[in-house]
Design brief:
With 361 residues, this protein is mostly helical. The protein has a single domain, classed as Orthogonal Bundle (Citrate Synthase, domain 1). α9 runs parallel beside α16. The longest helix is centred in the middle third of the chain and has 23 residues. The protein is globular, with a radius of gyration of 21 Å. The two termini are 25 Å apart. InterPro entries: Citrate_synth-like_lrg_a-sub (IPR016142), Citrate_synth-like_sm_a-sub (IPR016143), Citrate_synthase (IPR002020), Citrate_synthase_AS (IPR019810), Citrate_synthase_bac-typ (IPR024176), Citrate_synthase_sf (IPR036969).
Length: 361
């Protein structure tokens, strides 16, 4: 029996994450992701996905020091970033520059140290290219800042507020890993040939670039901008539903109830009610939309997905839409590399069959 897109086909076993779509749970190495966003940093969750356990205080200090040591880009990578056409989109830039990072250091079996280096470098790649396009001086990474705080600092040249850092850190933890999605599968297929880590990550970036997978939450921003203020919410949403338009940011292919990532993001944003008009609007729109969706599509259980609140966060931290998917990539690289490591430890090359439907002469 053919399963288009391999939907429902179990192709491997993993200890990295588990998605329970019926109950709305996302588990990283046995831990509920919502609990991780409340108690742990980006670095601690990355350690968990790579090593399988949360770090001790001593282990975390050493881990942070090593991550920070890889933030600076080599001169040849900066030259490549400067040489690429201005019209090249950021995901294509990342695909090219990550590929160029490939060297003799990555020809051996994938290691956690390789994963750390690539994860640490990616925010710097994005920030460097963004400043180049804007015609502004590149902001060098700071060694006294955490991974997410430093990313925002490099992008904007000023220290972010604690609320901004917490919001983006929550988002980046929630999007680190999400099972055997298209880009993760792509990475594992490449790794299964015993190719190097750089090649596998490059495959994943190329897959993430596709709008059906890594499409940024730009459409959610368009919806919120069209609504503009709380007074317009019901009128705009009713018009869209009556015209059979899709409400962007609602519903998910996997989750049949609340998307746990959206729940965790909302929990973070509720701490900032009244501090940002855009976030307040998003919270109001969600409540109204869920009520109207139940009215127009009863029994469908359509709730907000992670993209809805991701859009609100990106807007609140003044991130340009061109950086949405690259930022998603800067978090998902942790999950990709964890899967690459797992694939290399118990490898079988992927080789599915296909059914020929052409002519036989």
């Amino acid at each position: 029996m053919i399963q288009p897109g391999l939907k429902g086909v179990v192709a491997t076993e993993t200890k990295i994450s588990h998605i329970d779509g019926e109950k709305g749970r996302l588990i990283y190495r046995g831990y509920d992701v919502k609990e991780l966003t409340e108690h742990d940093s980006f670095e601690e969750v990355a350690y968990l996905l790579w090593f399988g356990v949360l770090p001790t205080a001593k282990e975390l200090t050493k881990f942070n020091e090593e991550l920070k040591s890889h933030r600076t880009l080599s001169s040849y990578l900066k030259t490549i970033l400067d040489s690429l056409p201005r019209e090249m989109d950021m995901m294509s830039v990342l695909r090219t520059v990550v590929s160029a990072e490939g060297s003799l250091h990555y020809t051996s079996k994938p290691t956690i140290q390789q994963c750390m280096k690539l994860t640490s470098m990616m925010p710097t790649m994005i920030a460097y290219r963004n400043h180049s396009l804007q015609g502004t001086p590149f902001v060098e990474p700071r060694q006294d800042l955490g991974h997410v705080e430093n990313y925002l600092y490099m992008l904007h040249g000023v220290l972010p507020t604690k609320a901004q850092t917490n919001a983006l850190e929550t988002y980046m933890i929630l999007t680190m890993e999400h099972g055997m999605n298209a880009s993760t599968f792509s990475a594992r297929v490449t790794a299964s040939t015993e190719s190097d880590l750089i090649s596998a990550v490059t495959s994943a970036i190329g897959t993430m670039k596709g709008p059906l997978h890594g499409g940024a939450p730009s459409e959610v921003i368009h919806l919120l901008e069209e609504i503009g203020c709380t007074a317009n919410t019901e009128q705009v949403l009713r018009r869209k539903l009556e015209n059979r338009e899709k409400l962007m940011g609602f519903g998910h292919r996997v989750y049949k109830t609340h998307d746990p990532r959206a729940v965790a993001l909302k929990s973070t944003l509720l701490k900032q009610v009244g501090e940002d008009e855009w976030l307040d609007l998003a919270l109001y729109v969600e409540n109204t939309a869920v009520e109207l969706l139940e009215e127009y599509k009863p029994g469908r259980s359509l709730y907000t997905n992670v993209e809805f609140y991701a859009a609100a966060i990106m807007k609140a931290i003044h991130m340009d839409p061109s950086l949405f998917t690259p930022t998603f990539t800067a978090s998902r690289i942790v999950g990709w590399t964890a899967h690459i490591l797992e694939q290399s430890q118990n490898n079988t090359i992927y080789r599915p069959e296909s059914k020929y439907t052409g002519r036989i002469l």
